[in-house]
Fold each of these.
Amino acid sequence: MTIEKEQDVVPFRNRVKEHAVKIGMSILNQTKLITAASELVRNMLKYAGGGVTTIEVLSKGRENGIRVVFQDKGPGIKDIKQAMQDGFSTGKSLGVGLPGAKRLVSEFDIKSIPGEGTTVTIIKWKNG
Amino acid sequence: MDRIPILRMGKFLLVTIQIDLYDRLATNLESDLVNMVNKTGARGVLIDISALSIVDSFMGRILGNIGTMSKIMDAEAVVVGMQPAVAITLIELGLELKGVHTALNVEKGMELLHEKISFDEDTLDEADYENNSE
Ligand SMILES: Nc1ncnc2c1ncn2[C@@H]1O[C@H](COP(=O)(O)OP(=O)(O)OP(=O)(O)O)[C@@H](O)[C@H]1O
Ligand SMILES: [Mg+2]
């Protein structure tokens, strides 16, 4: 899904929700996943002017989960360790987005190359 | 729809959020509420978010701003009906709703507003009394 404006946020969240419902994820885990996804899609809009998201169902043994990938061609992040700290923000904001999203999901991966862009991947297992 | 209706009930303003809000709607609500508190001199603002399935840092900030702005204008803001899953998620995200009170439902929220405000008025009365007796 292409994300280029603020109005894309709610439909994107609904798409994530549809996937989570499809695998029977609990309301609590759905809420955590969608909230994390919302933070990441907002970062993509705010700092990279948009990007592309992919949502898919995963299986590992008997466990199902949802993977969401956020890919942008924005300015990238110079110091990922610093960006992942609670309270760090270059946007005069609270700096909860990245560290908070990480806490809410089962697996979190961030890769960024300054000048080329940022890719964040999250996985929430159904029972994770 | 680009505005959420605000109901006036005596000294209070009531808002029921019925859908997941687009950012524009949320920021409009913030400024509409602030204007309305200012214009009407309302003493309390009650926001029912029981239909919200998600509160992310953006929405959290809007609710916090409404609380802070209300305080500045001598009003109290209470958020009611937050889904348990939303409350748990907010804590894990690391967001505190500073500046707003929270209550289980509309009824409890109204009670809370009444308490806060009558307490205020009692202390005001006392202050007047002391001034008069000087
Ligand atoms: N996709 C991105 N591209 C470039 N920089 C980013 C991206 N996502 C995050 N950042 C950088 O990482 C910092 C931390 O992000 P985080 O989401 O934790 O906080 P924030 O967005 O500044 O504040 P909040 O999310 O609380 O509103 C941002 O301030 C920004 O500098
Ligand atoms: Mg952010």
Note: The radius of gyration of chain B is 16 Å.
Amino acid sequence: MLQMQARSAVIYEELDVFPEVLVIGCGTEGAAAALAVSENQPVTVIDHDTNHDGLSLIKGQTNITVNAGVKVVGLDGFPGQFLVSFMENGEYTKKSFGAIIVALEAQSSYDAKKYNRIELGERILSLSQFIKKDNDYSRQKVTFVLGQADRDSISSYATALSQAIALKEKDADVSILYYDMKVSADHLEQDYELARARGVNFLKYEGDLQILKTDVAATVQYSEPFLEETEQVKLVSDYLVLPEDYVAHPGTADLADVLDVNTGPNGFFQEDNVHFLPIMSNREGIYFIGSCHGPIYGVELEKEIETVKAEVGRFASGKTRVASLQPQVDAEKCAVCLTCYRCCPHHAIEIVHDESLNNMYHSAARMNPLACRHCGICSAECPGKAIQLPNYKDGQILQQLSRPPKIVAFACENSGTLAAELANKIEPELNALIQVVPVPCSGKIDALYLLKALERGADGVLLIACQKENCKYSRGNVRADQRKELVRKRLEAIGLEGDRVDIVHVAANQGNQFNESIRSMVARVNQLGSYPGKVIR
Amino acid sequence: MIVVENKSAEDILKMVAPYKKILVAGCYGCVTVCLAGGEKEVGLLASQIRMAREKEGNPIEVLEQTVERQCDKEYLVNFQDKARDVEAIVSLACGIGIQYLAQVYEPIPVFPGVNTQFLGANLDVGVWEEYCMACGECVLDKTGGICPIARCSKSLLNGPCGGSQEGKCEVDKSVDCAWHLIYDRLKALGQLDKMAEYIPAKNWHRNEGPRKLVKEDLTLEQ
Ligand code: SF4
Ligand code: SF4
Ligand code: SF4
Ligand code: SF4
């Protein structure tokens, strides 16, 4: 079913790169990243109108330049050779960097609506106020109220736990009032156990809370799930600590625009994508660390910094070696139409001018080996058929379709081919009916491949793509959806059944779904009969 | 750029109905850029034609080729091997290319595979908008760089008309009123006085027949 292709030997290129790394954001997160990275290579940190909490940590450090009052307003070039434009005191400046780390910290915002409109004060503190304040809490009763704000993130849970443990050491009487204790992250389970062992009270509430305040104490009134519904418990404390919501830094959208990187849920950096490591953006050489992509807590941040340090470390020597796996453009066929440039989800394409390029413009698209992620989307979009992706050239794909069986399934290698392998183990009988043609991304499935499969004898064709919003290459599966429509229309326009083409969205572990969709396609084409448009001679 | 749209497969199939062997001819110029007549589209159309004819039990052989520009005879020559071999040609170039191809390859019948639409800008992948109608006497200097001929539904030289409402055109509410745009642009440029300037009626010199441009100082010896 699955034909493995012979891959050609990989050629490597050695490229000159700028070792210096730009860190955008001068809070404690950006400073921590800068300190780590500066062990290997020079770093420039700019504040980009954000806070300066990290300044004291990095001032005067060797290998670190701090530039306050500077904003990023433009970006050209590719990983290893980015050219960043800055606005500094009303003047433009430009500088080259190998990589960029975004660390625009999220901002906490106390939302009184989440706590029956109680205002903060002497006895009622937000979590970040509490951390900053250096009170003596010995013999004081301190209560953390979790689960009202910042419900989906784990960072307030982590912070409250570590603060509670520390308070216990200072002999305070600590309670954590929770609705649903979230401990599903590294070290949190241990912190939770430790807090229990140290005598922190964990109290569960249900439904709404009432917070009342007097000059000497603060009271939470709540329902205990284990007691009669009518009974309300009153918990009187000296201090109440209320976590805030985290919101993306207000400069996020603008910076995302300048850097051409995607944002995701709640306006934070980074799209919601299971294929992405926490620090990854849709562009190579641009990384997100810390709360710029959502609330985060200490241990996670440390891990991210370690990863980013290793990633940008590739450029530390000023040279880097990269496999030439990016698509190649046949200049004779390139109309410099910009379609590939506009469609590449990773900003990996430039239009170059060179007298040696053999067309009337002496120009052609060129894919950057460091920026390209080899999805092949560009090659499927090109109206001139000028782009060929190594190992997945049109010829190599069409060659596999010399005598197709009933169904041809063009399958994304991030989901479809894996599901197909699983499917094959579950139901090997289906094997004879289908041929799976692997592609690096469903966005690589050219409309021509679909027509050719039918022309050459298949009765039905399938595009097997990743689940919606889970495309490793951001929007390949959306393009695949559009192509299915396009080919359906083309078939209907010549009086043939558009239903012979369909798309299925699967995850790698959905072998059963895969077989299900094959079976339903087989049933469909059996009903329609043999495809009358076959051109077999 | 010249913007074209693909003709329906039904129309094209009718044109080629009498033939058993044809060439689908693409152009790497404007029609590739507007995603309608490059090598890719040639492949898609050829495949459609083949499959449709198989279905009818009346197979057809379809050759495919794309050249640099169909509006230059030096490039058209490249079709000659294949053209000699077919009964008809479907061209996916703009109206210019189609005609020139028909002229050069007479007496082979040449059919249009596209409907040539307008001269426009490519605003984004898959989006084009008409910007110029090649009127022959440009007035963009008076209109803040926005063409009233192409972009005003009535091609008014002294607009707006009474149907301009909240920036939209009375002919179609989804269309921006060109004269409203012109007003805004002139204001931004500090040239609002140009609004009051009367633009005289144009010399639509089509009354001299089809237009032709000959630059004597550039032509080669006759
Ligand atoms: S899509 Fe193709 S023709 Fe257009 S610029 Fe890219 S390579 Fe050139
Ligand atoms: S293969 Fe993908 S990442 Fe590489 S240039 Fe093409 S579209 Fe961009
Ligand atoms: S033939 Fe038409 S489409 Fe082709 S380059 Fe010339 S003007 Fe453009
Ligand atoms: S006035 Fe309009 S139609 Fe005439 S040449 Fe200028 S842009 Fe083209």
Note: The longest helix of chain A spans residues 476-493.
